Amino acid sequence: MIQTPETVPQPVIRNVGVTGMLVTFGDQLSDAANIAAISFRDAVEAAKIEGVIETCTSLVSTFVMFDPTQLSRQALKHRLQELVTDMDWLAQQAASNRLWRLKVAFGNDHGPHLSEVAALTGLTPEAAINEILATRVRVIAIGFAPGQPYLGTLPPNWDFPRLPALTPQVPAGSLVVALRQLVLFTNDSPTGWRRIGQTAFRNFEPDSDSPFRLSTGDLIEFVRVTDDEMSRCLANPARDDAAELTEAS
Amino acid sequence: MSSQTACLEVLKAGPGLTIQDMGRHGWLSYGVSRGGAVDREALYEGAALLGQGADHAVIEMPAFGGEFQVHGDFRIALSGAVMPAQLDGSKLAWNASHNVCDGQRLSIGSAGTGVYGYLSVSGGFQTPLVMGSRATHLAALIGGVVQPGDNLLVGGDPEATATSVCLPQATRFNGGDIRVVPTLHTSLYTQSDIERFENTLFYRSLRSNRQGVALDFDGAPFTADSHQNILSEPMISGDIQMTGDGYPVVLQSECQSIGGFARIAQVLPCDLSKVAQAASEKPLQFKFVTLEDADAAQQAHDTEIQTLGRRVEPLVRDIAEIQDLLSFQLISGVVTGRE
């Protein structure tokens, strides 16, 4: 999964307006830069810098939001620079050892674009499913909707664009694909991504004490289930059998 | 009526009324922006008028208010965009606090000046806390709009008979100069486009919402250097994002947490209320300042907010506007000793 870092420059620290600072580990998405950004964010959180309001990651950057009336820009930049030089962030192998096994039903009504996607990857539908089942993906980023994970990266033959037109509605829990990435939809939503499967996984429960289950860096493997089994999972209000959390080996 | 049962019953509600507070921090990494009131200054004003902290939940009213039935005795404060307000037919001063009593009817009309009006109550609205805040986040599907039939519980008021007070009318409703600093993608614009950006008059578009103030203007779109690959990066309120067709949107509290459009500049946090409250006929003009000047401006603004309480004065009513003079207390309530 680790790509060669020849295109990745040294980390760059930039101001983002008045209250933000961004530490960027690459000029394009790579596994190394993504893992570096997620690991570096953990280090910033662990440093508990007074005046830092909150942090998050994008594809290849760690974002630090701060209160300039409590923490000077120079002091924050200096502190981040120290953390950057603490270790070789781009050499990190993983950002989390949490491994989720997620049940998914592929094709038919649950994945109307499966045949089309298989053709785009140069595989039969069955071989395309097997390639997804064989790939351990990582939560690259969370966004667009609350808790909505972008998962990657799939092998190079999955590098096809999104659809030119929006599919009016896919249901929550849909597994969609484009650009070597998978997305698990939080809510019913229109989308330009192609829908290949359905999960019963809920990653956003606002009334829960811990409203989100997945974090960036978590690893995911898909476990194939039948349409009937998926229907049973979807009918279970607790959805507790939709995913299993283990420790990655 | 005891404070436990004090509530405001919604009889009529303008579109998009929501419960708001200062929003929720700590969920950006899960894709949820801070949210909360788009004009936070109005919450500080409401809190100063009621003599309470600014962490209470209020009703945010975009352009239109509503009609409310008062159950129990408590106090309200009206702040933000100036809206005509009446209590049982008597006109209420804006930017002021008022005592309301069981059975009275409060009506709030459409904004004459500004965009977002705010109705604060003593003790705050006691809607459920979700992820540490009562703020409705429409984009994240947390909470929903205030609707007729809602009974909004009001927190206890130990000083339900306190004197009505007012603040000087705020001046942030007329657009004008908005201070910005360079941000992530400022350098992707040519110097002449940056100058044109500073010299252009921008107007609030009807497409604006809690996620962002979309801006209309005369002239060519602002397009970034298309040879540069823009990666999706975190976004926060104040960022001026150029949509794909080159039209600016000033992101507000409920913006997406991450996005791939170019950002030409960022509005100083202390000038965001001014952007939110500029109605469509009030031009906005962006002016770049240095980060040092931005920090100083923010510090001065924070000091002003912290000392708002000192500007609170007893409300003296205009006798001509009182319907039934004989039944009216000219100075309502009693002195609490805290003045």
Output the CATH homologous superfamily of the largest domain in chain A.
Cyclophilin-like
Structural class by helix and strand composition of chain B = alpha+beta
Give the total of domains of chain A.
2
* Overall outline of chain A: elongated
Terminal-residue CA separation of chain B: 26 Å
What's the CATH topology label of the largest domain in chain A? Answer: Cyclophilin
Q: What strand order characterises the main sheet of chain B?
A: 14-15-18-17-20-13-21
Helix/sheet category of chain A? alpha+beta
What top-tier CATH class of the largest domain in chain A fits best? Mainly Beta
Helix content of chain B: 10-25%
For this entry, what is the oligomeric state of its chains?
heterodimer
Which pair of chains has the greatest number of interface residues, and how are they split between the two chains? A-B, 42 and 38 residues
Q: Report the major sheet of chain A.
A: 7 strands, mixed, barrel
Q: How big is the Rg of chain A?
A: 19 Å
Give the tally of β-strands of chain B. 22
Biggest β-sheet: strands ordered side by side in the sheet of chain A: 5-12-9-10-7-6-13
Taking pLDDT < 50 over at least 5 consecutive residues as the criterion, the unreliable ranges of chain A are 1-8
The helix fraction of chain A, in percent, is 10-25%
> What is the CATH architecture annotation of the largest domain in chain A?
Beta Barrel
Shape of chain B: elongated
Question: What letter string, H or E per element, gives the SSE order of chain B?
Answer: EEHEEEEEEEEEEEHEEEEEEEHEHE
Concise description?
Chain A is an alpha+beta fold. Helices cover 23% and strands 29% of the residues of chain A. In chain A, α3 (114-121) crosses α4 (125-134).
